[in-house]
Amino acid sequence: GKTFPIVFRLVDCDQGFLLKPDPSLKNAKFFEGGLIFHANCLSPLSRDVPPDFQETYIPFCDRDRLVKEIIPELQERFTVILESTKLPEIILEKPRAVIHLEKLEGSTLIVHPKIVYGNPVFAEVINDTLLSNSTSKTVQRDHFTEIELLRNLRETYNLIPGHISKVTGSEAVTFIDSIKDIEISGSDPSHLFSRTELSPDIDISPDGLFSAQFCCSSATDGQVPFENVFKAFQNGDKYLQMSPGLWGQIPESWLQKYADQVVHLLNSKNTKGELPKYHLLQLVSMYEEQNQKLPDYLEKFKKLLDDFEGIPLASLPVDLTLSLRSYQKTGINWLQFMRQLDCGAMLADDMGLGKTVQTLCAISGRTLVIAPTSVLDSWNQQIKDYRPSLHVCLYHGADRRLCKDADVTLTSYGILKLDTEKLGSENWKTIVLDEAQVIRNPDSQVAQAVHSLKAPFRLALSGTPIENRIEDLWSQFHFLNPGLLGDKNAFIANFSNHTQTVQLRNLVRPFILRRLKKDVAKELPAKTEVILHNDLDEEELELYNSLLTATKAQVLTLLNKTGNIFGVLELLLRLRQTCCHPALVPGGTDIFQKTSSSKIDLLLATLETSLALGHRALVFSQWTSLLDLIEPLLAEKSITYSRLDGSTRNRDQVISEFQKPDGPNLMLISLKAGGLGITLTAADHVFIMDPWWNPAVEEQASDRAHRLGQTNPVLVHKLVAKNTIEEKVIQLQRAKQELAKSVLSEEALAAVITREDILNLLNT
Question: Could you say which of 130, 162, 590, 622 has the lowest number of CB atoms within 10 Å?
Answer without folding.
Answer: 590
